[in-house]
Amino acid sequence: MPDSAPAKSRPTDAALHTGLGRVLLFVYGVFALSASARAGVQIATHFSEAPTAYLLSAVAGLVYIAATVGLAIGGARGRRIALTGCSIELAGVLIVGTLSLADKVAFPDATVWSGYGSGYGYVPLVLPFIGLWWIWRHRPQPPSTTG
Amino acid sequence: MNGPLSAATIAVALLLAAWFLLRAALNRAPSRFDLLSTLAFSALVAVLVIVAVIGLFDGTRPTETATFCGYLITTIAFAPVAFYLARLEPTRWGNLILGVACLVLPVLVLRLQQIASVTGA
């Protein structure tokens, strides 16, 4: 349980430390699982129909998992993982969203990022912004000499 | 999928979501009533899932049976997980977790109906 773990074992900016962070992790976790599970089923059952879309789904799932873990552990390493993950998500949802509308042949089957995440209530479009906001809000404070 | 039962589940989920989000906005931690309603809601979802599983054995199966079963497992586990997490978080954020979970569940039920409607016979 996060509550019973000794406080010093986790960096103070770990999202697990605060209630809002736990909500964020919950949502990220749900997306990590749904994107990965969906990709897993698609690759296992009909990979040849749309390899690009399914591989993309798998990559999206891995990125969500990485971002979830990065946000959860915090610290310099966690921040770097989360920042990378959230940036890839943002780029992915914008690029794939645009391509899926412009070129339907390359994306015959839906991915989590198709149509800017419209199949998932545009949550994939909003999540990276919330993640980046979280990282920005918990950026390391430079040692302050004022006051 | 049982139509009326699905509709009832979605309606209850949305009502509860509104209630939990309101409670979170008012800075209230999950009360005993909130947690008990989550449990009652979990029971309703469990009934829906069990009815769907029974339907798998007498009637046409959805084309994507594996996906359907995956969604069934996710659906039945979702509210209990939210309940568990909300108990760990006795602040307003516990209610936000319950609210988010109650917003996701209608999506799961709609997806289940969608998958169930494709029988490909």
Model description:
The complex is a heterodimer of chains A (147) and B (121). Mean pLDDT of chain A is 79; it is low at 1-7. In chain A, helix 1 runs antiparallel to helix 2, helix 1 crosses helix 4 and helix 2 (51-73) runs antiparallel to helix 3. The longest helix of chain A has 28 residues, at 19-46. Chain A is built from 4 helices and no strands. In chain A, 64% of the residues lie in helices and 0% in strands. Chain A is elongated, with a radius of gyration of 17 Å. Chain A has one domain (13-137). Chain B has one domain (3-117): Up-down Bundle (Four Helix Bundle (Hemerythrin (Met), subunit A)). Chain B is elongated. Chain B starts with a helix and ends with a helix.
Question: Can you lay out the helices and strands and say which pair or pack?
Answer:
The complex is a heterodimer of chains A (147) and B (121).
Chain A: H1 19-46, H2 51-73, H3 75-102, H4 123-137
Helix pairs in contact in A: 1-2, 1-4, 2-3, 3-4
Chain B: H1 3-25, H2 32-57, H3 65-88, H4 92-117
Helix pairs in contact in B: 1-2, 1-4, 2-3, 3-4
Main attributes of the structure:
A: mainly alpha, 4 helices, elongated, disordered N terminus, B: 121 residues, mainly alpha, Four Helix Bundle (Hemerythrin (Met), subunit A)
Question: Outline of this structure?
Answer:
With 147 residues, chain A is mainly alpha-helical.
What's the shape of chain B?
elongated
Largest sheet properties of chain B: none
Parts with pLDDT < 50 across at least 5 consecutive residues of chain A: 1-7
The CATH class of chain B: Mainly Alpha
* CA distance, first residue to last residue of chain A: 38 Å
> How many distinct helices of chain A?
4
Main beta sheet of chain A? none
Overall pLDDT confidence of chain A = 79
Number of domains of chain A: 1
Based on secondary structure, the structural category of chain A is: mainly alpha
Give the overall silhouette of chain A. Answer: elongated
Beta strand count of chain A = 0
Strand-residue fraction of chain B?
under 5%
